[in-house]
Amino acid sequence: MFHYKKLVFLFMVAVMVLAACQQATPVVTEAPVVTEAPVVTEAPAALSEWSLDCAPNCQYSDLVVGFLQTGSEGGWRAANTSSFKETAEQLGLTLKFYDSQNDLAKQVAGFHQFVQDPEVNVIVLAALETTGWEEILQEAKDAGKVVVIEDRRIDAPEDLYATYIGSDFAEEGRKSAAEMCKLLEGMEGKKVWELVGNVGSSAAKDRGQGFREGMGECGIEITNSQTGNWSTTEGKQVTEAWLRESKDVQGIFAQNDEMGFGAIEALKEAGLTPGEDVKVLSVDATGNAFKAMLEGDLSVTVECNPLLAPQVYEAALKAANGEELPKWVPSQEGVFRADDPNLEEIAAGRTY
Ligand code: GYE
Questions:
Q1: Closest to 63 in 3D by CA, of 81, 77, 50
Q2: Model pLDDT for residues 300-329, shown as the tens digit of each residue
Q3: Which of 129, 132, 184, 309 could cysteine-pair with 83, CB 3.0–4.6 Å?
């Protein structure tokens, strides 16, 4: 009996000792919260060919961005330019802004200037035309500049730039054709006039191609097509000239809002009612397009997002730090219609 009691006592002592041991070892349930971006001391395995000397720890304050803007041809461009200037200030990077005044020779000259500028380590290009950039892009790359293409794509080998950030213009064209088909439902004819952007630009080429891809769905026929150079004045002049020839038109596809506003003025002065006699559709979805839709003059506007700077600067910093980037990051965009019951509310919420 005595041995049995001794055994029980020893067993209980053992259990108590074990319990005391368990409390001592902490169980790590979640990783410790990292407050500061860990300073990467050793370089990651393979920095991309675009990395700058400050890689892999470049900060926005290390970036000096030479931005080659097309010019100042309308509401969309003004919003795009503000996006770059305001975001540069917010992020604390240095921006050298170059206005190419919609002149290709000036834009190429500005590019050379930035390639030779020792302060500039990032070059951002909104290309006026798709071709002719290979040589200067190679010079920029050899000079160790990070090159990012924004807004308008170019026809050049992808290894000559870090990434392209911009819209799918062909998709905007296809959307425009689908919307025009809806607008022309029930109208006896499907004759459409096209106001084209500046010749040679990707926005103009791709929107036109996309529209032609989709227009067959409902038998649309383009009976006039000419550039209005993205401007209201030229959009009006071109439409006036067509109206002097014939008023047999059911739809106008304006590749941007400004040219659409010009067409609306011309229709009114010719005694036609935009939105009734002729359906006008444009691309961009700027604030003025919402006004024109609320007045019933413009029937549809297909969005093209101009607020690209945050994405562009983020991509430039990633490239500077040696990260590989996808070659194209298409923007997410919508379609807005004059017959939308919530249009007033939507318009009130727009930022450009
Ligand atoms: O549609 C037009 C501007 O490149 C997407 O350029 C841009 C176009 C835009 O002039 O309004």
A1: 50
A2: 999 999 999 999 999 999 999 999 999 997
A3: 309
- Measuring CA to CA, how many Å separate 226 from each of 72, 128, 229? 21, 18, 9
CA of 300 to the centre of ligand 1 (A): 17
- Cα 60 from Cα 317, distance rounded (Å): 7
> Which pLDDT tens digit goes with each residue over 121-170?
999 999 999 999 999 999 999 999 999 999 999 999 999 999 999 999 99
Q: Please determine, for residue 78, whether its predicted confidence score (pLDDT) is greater than 80.
A: yes
CA–centroid distance, residue 75 to ligand 1 (Å): 9
- Does residue 130's CB lie within 6 angstroms of at least one atom of ligand 1? no
Residue 229 Cβ contacting ligand 1 at under 6 Å: no
- Quote the pTM value: 0.84
How many angstroms is it from 215 CA to the middle of ligand 1?
22
Residue with tokens 């379609």: 335
Q: What is the DSSP letter of 218?
A: G
Tokens 């002065």 -> residue:
269
Residue 166 pairs in a beta bridge with 151, 330
Would the CA dihedral through 145, 146, 152, 154 be positive or negative? positive
The whole-number pLDDT of residue 332 equals: 81
Cβ(275)–Cβ(298) under 8 Å? yes
Whether the CB of 175 sits within 6 Å of ligand 1: no
Crossing angle of the two packed helices 257-269 and 287-294, in degrees rounded to 10: 30
